[in-house]
């Protein structure tokens, strides 16, 4: 059997099913390490984006429950500060106001 392309016949005289340019040489060791690390880098990048998005949303949006808790904290902190201040001035009033 004659090949259509004179230079493409193999050792046994048959034309190989593979067409196209000859295979390129193997990549350098640095490129090979980068190719092995690519999936890990992609996962790390996705995780970093998710963490940054969570920080952004947490800073921008506050839930109703969190707002209520913050208001309660400010109120009771004020009561405690008043009790401590009154306790240093008037012992009886400080003991009556001291809740915490």
Outline the fold blueprint.
Blueprint: H1 29-60, H2 64-89, H3 91-97
Helix pairs in contact: 2-3
Uncertain runs are: none
Order of helices and strands: HHH
Helix content: 55-70%
- Nearest-integer average pLDDT: 78
Give a verbal description of the structure.
- This protein is mainly alpha-helical and 100 residues long.
- It has 2 domains: 28-61; 62-100.
- The chain has helices at residues 29-60, 64-89, 91-97.
Labels describing this entry:
3 helices, single chain, rod-shaped, 2 domains, 100 residues, mainly alpha
Give a short synopsis of this structure.
By secondary structure, the protein is mainly α. It has helices at 29-60, 64-89, 91-97.
């Amino acid at each position: 059997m004659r090949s259509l392309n004179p230079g493409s016949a193999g050792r046994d005289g048959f034309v190989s099913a593979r067409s196209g340019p000859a295979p390129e040489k193997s990549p350098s060791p640095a490129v090979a390490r980068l190719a092995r690390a690519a999936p890990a880098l992609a996962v790390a990048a996705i995780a970093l984006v998710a963490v940054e998005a969570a920080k952004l949303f947490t800073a921008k949006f506050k839930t109703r429950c969190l707002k209520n808790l913050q208001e309660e904290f400010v109120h009771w902190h004020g009561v405690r500060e008043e009790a401590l201040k009154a306790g240093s001035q008037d012992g009886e009033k400080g003991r009556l106001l001291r809740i915490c």
